[in-house]
Amino acid sequence: MAIAAAINGTIGVAVLILYMRRRSPAPSAVVQEDRVHTGSGMMPFPLAVLISGLAGFISLSYEIMWYRMVSFISGGEAKSFSFLLGWFLSGIAFGSLLSRRLCGNTKLNGPRLIRSIATLIVSANVLGISGHSVFGEVVRHFSYKLALPLIGIAAGLLGAMFPLICHVAVPPDRRVGARLSYLYLSNILGSASGSLMIGLILMDVWGVREISVMLALVGLILGVSLILVYKDRRTNLVATAVVVLAIAVVALANPLFANIYDKFQNKAGYEREKPFKYVVESRSGVITVDDADTIYGGGAYDGKFSIDLVENSNHILRAFAMSSFHAAPKQVLMIGLSSGSWAQVLVNHPQIEKLTIVEINPAIWN
Fold this sequence. Notes:
Distance between the termini: 29 Å
Largest sheet: 4 strands, antiparallel
Structural class: alpha+beta
CATH architecture of the largest domain: Up-down Bundle
Strand content: 5-15%
CATH topology of the largest domain: Growth Hormone, Chain: A
Radius of gyration: 26 Å
Number of strands: 6
CATH class of the largest domain: Mainly Alpha
Strand order of the largest sheet: 1-2-3-4
Mean pLDDT: 84
């Protein structure tokens, strides 16, 4: 995903450079059209470039968060990404159709279209931050696939933003192609930075709750800013309502995400009285430990904290039986640390001189 965004960004930069080198002087007379109904040119172009980039950032960031959720729920099932991507792209397509209808509505002038963009931003972020909680309740009784339309709706609201931004910010003159390229480049750069910042940086710093709250607040602040730029008699009331919504997002973050991974993993077997003892989130995945000291990686069984040979609950007999496989084991390569129980047995083996452990998820050492 990040590679595709980088390729698109490179193409956009190349086209921009070619345009800057070959553009001709602007004509003395520029064709002007009636903008009362079209809304073209009603938004300052620098503001449109900023909003376009933030829209891409928010959209790709939510997609990464949603994939983390769906992958965990399905236990890493490969086709879960196909389901997610299908609904996400379908939502963007239907969002584009929605924007076409809004742009063709002669009753909506520029300011009203801009308020429509603010409404789309706010609505998409409300769905975005509530999505995990909705999925948590759905998977307790049904398949997670039944909740995927929610992602499609949120993606549709986000997908409708870019065409509307172009419509209200780009006048129908001979520079329309250049301005569209600037907006598209900003959107691509925002998308790429979202995937890089969320997927490679913030996921190692924050959990799903903190990242979701951050994205929701960015979207709500953006919506309020647009509402305040184009004031009318209802501006203060609407802006106040969005601010109250932002406060509610922060206040309700803990209840919304309480025991969320317990619900994703245990589904119908979820018990509020038996939450996970540990939950470790990182960009490499999610590690959970239940009340029986069983460890799971990405929602799938990954071992247990136990060196009890008699109980043998995690098949640790095989670690104790190392000398049965090799008469004089000196160097051992272990793929995956898991709970570290097997490693504890092997490192204390009298014949083993060196134990090398390869673990893909560095967070497991915590």
